[in-house]
Amino acid sequence: MELQSIVCPNCGATTTKKDYCEFCGSFLVGKISSGINVDRYADTVRKMPLNKGIKQMLDIFTNIVYDLDDQYCKLLVLDVINIKAKGIYDDGIILSITASHNGIILKYPGNASYEFANSSMFTLFEKKANDLYIVSFGKDIGGAVKFINQFIKELYPKADISFRISILSPDNKGEMGHIRYNRDGNFIDGYYMTEAFGIKNELSVLEINSKSIEELIKIKENIINTPKELEQKLKARLYDKKFVSQVNDFYFNIENINSHTAGDSILMWFSYQVSSIDIRLKYIGIHLIKFSFLNHISPDIVTKPYFEYGDWYVEVVYTLKASDLKRISESQDKEEFKLYFVDNRGHTKCMNCEQLRKIISVIWQAVEDPVEGMSKLQTVYTETNRYQRNLKKHVSWAIWTLIIWGVGSLLTLIIGGIWSFVVENKEPIIWFAIVTIVLGALCIFKVFGLKSDIKAYESKYGRAFYIH
Fold first, then answer.
1. Which of the residues 164, 219, 245, 444 has an alpha carbon 20 to 30 A from that of 185?
2. To the nearest 5 percent, what fractions of the chain are helix, strand and coil?
3. How far apart are CA 229 and CA 41, in angstroms?
4. Are strands 93-100 and 338-342 parallel, antiparallel or unpaired?
5. pLDDT greater than 90 at residue 466
6. Calpha distance 108→127 (Å, rounded)
7. Overall pTM surpassing 0.70 (yes/no)
8. In 10 A of CB 186, how many CB atoms?
9. pLDDT single digits (tens) 418-447
């Protein structure tokens, strides 16, 4: 059977290939083979010069990916970012690019606007689930460069772009590092983070190659695969109903996260899965925030924010595996465990979670030493519950103290004073004063007692949360 020839819309040569032009490598031949009309797009970009910044970035990215083993290719993602658009609800990503030994794939996360549907590139996209649009370029880097450049020109003409290569963790727990480049494809900075180091480590421009990145991924992979016994220990404890019920009973009503706004607070509690423990946080307040990292741990689940009865509600889940619990438990750095979030102005803030860190430490002790650890877990649970109750009581008694002193003083001066004036005797006003002083003193004594208990707990476990 004779192969059907196709005139390449990029170079004009006649090719018998079905996926790409055998002369210039254009991916447009594959689109024509699939019955897609590419004339409008091809006429637009045929004489377009290659954007040097985009070309350099794709060269850097594909040079790394094509030298990686197949299993690691999928762990690198190149994002094209609009710097001007980055904010609390917009991470600025215009396009995401992945690559494998089979070639380059561009992903657009589905802004199905009128402009997009009427763009010259729209017919070249293939729609996937969740409104994800993709374009496969094979190994046609030049075609990918022109496509990305034209996409930005048509849909984001005012964008100030930069690039970021994200290195994803092999355990599907977010990224373990990223590398940033400017619009010209020049290196800005980079970092990597594994549980072997526990903190961010800088990447130099000399380390941006397939060999060094594969070594970093393997370090993370080995750490994930070696502590199987830790996972088995945690899994066994999670079958213990007493342990699970104890952990699930920890529940915090966190203090205000914004000292200038009353009512903004975070609720925190634990839940569990087969081999991990979840920390669940729920924000309630008049401003909408965006949760970020919890001590370098990325959110596992983020529910869509909703507005109800004058308040915003945002929920997030952080999943802690056995290795996370052990690392947190062994940390002695009080300033290490923090919750990061973005406020309504797009500013990143963090809150020290010393109390939560210590509770996690006790939970892990109960995993490693069920007898002694469970006893300590029960003690911490009891003390923490008492602490939460004392916080509420302290507020309540403080209010009653003000009411008693205020109302008592008024009654003493008005009723007691009038009564004494009528009977021409000071005893009524004296008795009113004595009752006010006694009741007020008892309230003050109770307030100071509760305050003392609260400070004793905080000196031992730290405060629930505070702005840092």
1. 219
2. 45, 25, 30
3. 57
4. unpaired
5. no
6. 10
7. no
8. 12
9. 777 777 777 778 887 888 888 888 888 888
Secondary structure of 308-330 as H, E, C letters: ECCEEEEEEEEEECHHHHHHHHH
Of residues 380, 379, 378, 377, the one with CA closest to residue 364: 377
- Ramachandran bin of 244, using left for φ above 0, alpha for ψ from -120 to 50, beta for the remaining angles: alpha
Q: Give the C-alpha separation, 161 to 69, whole Å.
A: 30
Sign of CA dihedral 23, 27, 31, 34: positive
**DSSP code string of 221-232:** HHHHHSTHHHHH
How many CA atoms does the CB half-sphere of 231 hold within 13 Å?
10
Token reading at 257: 């996260």
Rounded Cα gap, residues 287 and 67, in angstroms: 47
Lookup result for tokens 């595996």 = 321
Query: Which residue, 416, 418, 419, is CA-closest to 431?
Result: 416
Residue 465 φ then ψ, to 5°: -155, 155
Q: What local confidence, expressed as pLDDT, does residue 38 receive?
A: 92
Residue 241: count other Cβ atoms within 10 Å of its Cβ. Answer: 8
Q: Whole-angstrom Cα distance, residue 253 to residue 269?
A: 9
161-171 pLDDT, tens per residue? 999 999 998 87
Are β-strands 306-308 and 126-128 bridged in parallel, bridged antiparallel, or unpaired? unpaired
Environment class of 23 (CB within 10 Å of its CB; exposed 0-12, middle 13-18, buried 19+): middle
Task: With H, G, I as helix, E, B as strand and everything else as coil, classify residue 289.
Answer: coil
The answer to whether the Cα torsion of 191, 298, 295, 287 is positive or negative is: positive
Q: Strands 201-202 and 187-192, how do they pair?
A: antiparallel
At 412, list the tokens: 């003493």
Distance CA 193, CA 173 (A): 12
* Residue (of 386, 404, 405, 403) closest to 452 by Cα position: 386
The Cα 372–Cα 370 span in angstroms is 6
Read off the pLDDT of residues 65-87 as tens digits, 9 standing for 90 and up: 999 988 889 999 999 999 877 65
Q: Cα(81)–Cα(109) distance, rounded to whole angstroms?
A: 13
| More confident call, 463 vs 221 | 221
Strands 301-302 and 311-320: antiparallel
Asked if residues 48 and 27 have their Cβ atoms less than 8 Å apart, the reply is no
Say how far apart CA 101 and CA 180 lie, in whole Å. 23
